[in-house]
Amino acid sequence: MSSSPFCSWPVVLLLVLLCMVARESNGASNNVKVGSISKVEDADNFHIYYGQTFKVIKNAIDGKSYLLIQNTSRMAVRTKYCTSRIKSYVIPLLNYSVDTQSSQGGIPLLGLLGSLKGITSDAVASPCVLKLLEAGEVVKFEKGAEEVSQFAAHFISDTDQLQTCNFANFFPLSEGTPLQRAEWIKFLGAFANLETKANQVYDAVKASYTCLSQMAAKRTTSFKPIVAWMEYDKNFQTILRFKQFLSPTYIYAINFVYKNLGFFFRWLMTPGGGVWCFTKEPHKLKFVEDAGGENIDKSINKITYNVSDPDDLEALHAILCTVDAVIDETLSSEPQNYTKKTFLDNINLEDNSCFAFNQSIWRYDKRVRKGTTLEDWHDGAISQPNLVLADMIEALFPTGNYTTSYFRNIAKGEGVIDISSDMCDRDASLPLAPTIPACG
Ligand SMILES: *[C@@H]1O[C@H](CO)[C@@H](O)[C@H](O)[C@H]1NC(C)=O
Ligand SMILES: *[C@@H]1O[C@H](CO)[C@@H](O)[C@H](O)[C@H]1NC(C)=O
Ligand SMILES: *[C@@H]1O[C@H](CO)[C@@H](O)[C@H](O)[C@H]1NC(C)=O
Ligand SMILES: *[C@@H]1O[C@H](CO)[C@@H](O)[C@H](O)[C@H]1NC(C)=O
Ligand SMILES: *[C@@H]1O[C@H](CO)[C@@H](O)[C@H](O)[C@H]1NC(C)=O
Ligand SMILES: *[C@@H]1O[C@H](CO)[C@@H](O)[C@H](O)[C@H]1NC(C)=O
């Protein structure tokens, strides 16, 4: 072995490694090719692999590999895959459309609204998308319409539909924790060579989330506040009864169908006594834990409570007596009319003075799109779970100092904010900076 350290193999290897690391971390290189990469750290349902002139996203949602071919490579003009295993897309996407009946969280944060050209409904929670729609920059077309084929990609998260070659399954809601859902911003970033931006946003959101949860964990209260996520259903009894056997994905899909085709179910099922149930969706329980609270017992959230049944009602009231904060997720077609009184009526109670949560009854529909049941909770909140966590911490440990983003306290008569295009006060084609609440 040579005595000069610069000639020894281990050092050469080390230098090569260092170069690779430097190349990865110095992602802002102007050489678009594969200048920067995203590494999926938390999410379970997709992975990204990088080649010189292409990337591959392995998507567990549809079991396919998406071959993303750089437009500068020769492969871009020669290759087109659309098989049961592989789909190909030429990137960066010149344009794309989104099935807006599902989440699009992350698009404004990446500054990708400029190439958004089509949406399937105007029930969107982003004021700037509404503005682009009004200006004719974005067109609305019916779900399933032929127009969809003209876009370089069409992002969907309602996987139960006929998919053509340009469809891409973007499904953050399939993940179990808030951060895993937020990390899907890297999936979108890959289609636009915006890895650097996507990594920055995710790192900032994750750091904020982590800081807030560490701050919450340091609280020294003798008892952790107990939180119940609960939902009342007047009409949707049959499926609700089986909810405990369903995965969050299915529950999301069912809620989605219910929200959009609710009239059909109402016609199909005769309303009787409504039932209450407690959530067991993992990401919601995680928010409570990370905010320094405690979820109601697991054995309880398996059960549904029929308010017409006196025994059930008594049991429900007894459980509620142990709870410090309630998050009422009940679907409402008129969120502005869902008040504390609505909640008390639904739990069959005139007076809640005996309940510890009488000052803390929350809903996540603070930001809603007027005339629809769409809440920003199902959209923007997915890519910024740090804001949800900050809301949750304020709900559990009120300071009166913090203005919540998604939660409103109906016990204190807080109302809703209607999302409209005039709330877009920025250049929509520029990235929206993630909001980072004070921490520490
Ligand atoms: C590739 O995409 C970039 C960014 O949209 C664009 O500027 C460039 O003209 C495209 N190149 C080709 C060969 O299409
Ligand atoms: C979208 O981009 C494709 C190329 O990927 C182009 O052929 C098509 O005309 C564009 N469509 C719209 C609506 O801009
Ligand atoms: C609730 O109880 C009432 C009265 O016992 C009954 O008519 C109704 O079918 C029940 N609802 C459900 C969903 O079980
Ligand atoms: C809901 O509230 C609005 C006023 O905000 C009122 O005009 C409307 O009648 C209410 N709807 C119901 C069903 O009470
Ligand atoms: C809320 O409950 C507390 C006891 O937990 C009670 O002293 C207070 O009067 C109640 N307030 C309302 C508005 O019911
Ligand atoms: C409210 O905020 C001010 C300034 O940010 C701070 O000094 C005060 O302690 C806060 N109050 C509470 C109850 O946290």
Annotation keywords:
440 residues; Rossmann fold; five-stranded parallel sheet; disordered N terminus; seven-stranded mixed sheet; 18 strands; binds 2-acetamido-2-deoxy-beta-D-glucopyranose; 2 domains; single chain; alpha/beta
What does this structure look like?
- The protein is an alpha/beta fold.
- The protein has two domains: 32-204, Nitrogenase molybdenum iron protein domain (Rossmann fold, 3-Layer(aba) Sandwich); 219-421, no CATH class.
- Helix content is 31%, strand content 16%.
- Strands 10, 11, 12, 13, 14, 15 and 17 form a seven-stranded mixed sheet that branches.
- The longest helix has 23 residues, at 195-217.
- This is BnaC06g27290D protein.
- Residues 1-27 form the signal peptide.
The level of helicity is 25-40%
Total strand segments: 18
Please give the largest β-sheet. 7 strands, mixed
Number of domains: 2
Low-confidence stretches: 1-33, 237-245, 266-271
How big a fraction of the residues is strand?
15-25%
What small molecules does this complex bind?
2-acetamido-2-deoxy-beta-D-glucopyranose
Q: What is the count of DSSP helices, taking H or I runs of 4+ residues?
A: 14
How far the N terminus sits from the C terminus, by CA atoms, comes to 54 Å
Map the helices and strands:
Blueprint lengths: L8 H17 L20 E5 L3 E6 L4 E7 L4 H4 L7 E6 L4 E3 L8 H4 L5 E4 L7 H8 L4 E2 L13 E3 L10 E3 L8 H5 L2 H6 L4 H23 L8 E8 L3 H5 L6 H21 L6 E4 L3 H9 L3 E2 L8 E3 L3 H11 L4 E4 L11 H7 L14 E3 L3 E3 L10 H4 L1 H12 L11 E2 L7 E3 L21
Parallel strand pairs: 3-4, 5-6, 5-8, 6-7, 8-9, 10-12, 10-14, 14-15, 16-18
Antiparallel strand pairs: 1-2, 2-3, 10-11, 11-13, 15-17
Helix pairs in contact: 7-14
